[in-house]
Amino acid sequence: MASTHVQSFQSPTSSAGIRDSRQETRREIMDECEVTWENIQKTHHRLASRKKERPPVGTDESNATLKILQHKEKRLQAQLDLRKNQDIEVVSKDPQFVETLLWNDMKKNISHLQQALGIVKEQRVEVAGDIATARKYLEEQKAIQRSLEEKIQAFQLEDDEQQHTSVLAELQSKKKEASKYHLTVMNQLGKFLSDHFPAPNDDSDDSEDNRPRRQRQYCSLQHIIETLMNRLFESPHDCYVKILPTYWQPYIQLLLRSNIIQRHPDNCDLIRLVAFHT
């Protein structure tokens, strides 16, 4: 059917019809131009007859109107020349020719759309591949993140354990050193007190008559100080110790004057060690 249409388009009858249609179109355009020109003339006369209207200040009424009309005339003449010089394309009134032309345009449009569809499909495949790659990369990054978080938690736990172990070891070491130092100080204190402040013995008569004498045993100064120290650290809220008869009074007075011990404010028979550590 398409070949039939093409043959009819190339026949002399169709060519003559096209020339006739072009001539008719040109005549129609010329008629429109003449009508337009008549309208211009009528407008010119109507503008010339309107004497009440005045041009802007500083311009001549006749010159202004003339310039406007000349400008309009030049514009219309230019449009007319443009229409004369243009090759007017007139679609044939032959149904077969119009059908062939539309069929060819439709084929061209279908071809262009098929090409565009192929390009869109290729781009879709590329985008799908990019999306798959991006998802795979995202999963890998998530796996790496989880692994790093687990390692960080393990390192933190290990650091906490090491820190706890190191602190405990340090405290144990300090405790051993303190115990050694305490034993050394206590041995030195005991040796010093036993050498310079031995335990006194008091020989006294029990009565005025001649009865056999008995010897009273007093506690050493070392024993008194150790008792006060143990009392202070065992019960710091109640660290007073009662003065026993076995405590030698000169030693008690020596400790009071040296400000090593102090009496209870309400009971003078109670003494306590001064808290040097506070």
TrEMBL record:
The organism's place on the tree of life at top rank: Eukaryota
Keyword flag Heme: no
Compositionally biased tracts (Polar residues): 1-16
InterPro entries attached to this UniProt entry: Centromere_CenpK
Pfam families registered for this protein in UniProt: CENP-K (PF11802)
CC terms in the record's Gene Ontology section: chromosome, centromeric region; nucleus
Record carries keyword Nucleus: yes
Region (Disordered): 1-25
Keyword tags: Centromere, Chromosome, Coiled coil, Nucleus
Coiled-coil residues: 138-177
BP terms from Gene Ontology: kinetochore assembly; mitotic sister chromatid segregation
Localisation: Chromosome, Centromere; Nucleus
Family recorded in the similarity comment: Belongs to the CENP-K/MCM22 family.
Protein name: Centromere K
Taxonomy of the source species: Eukaryota, Metazoa, Cnidaria, Anthozoa, Octocorallia
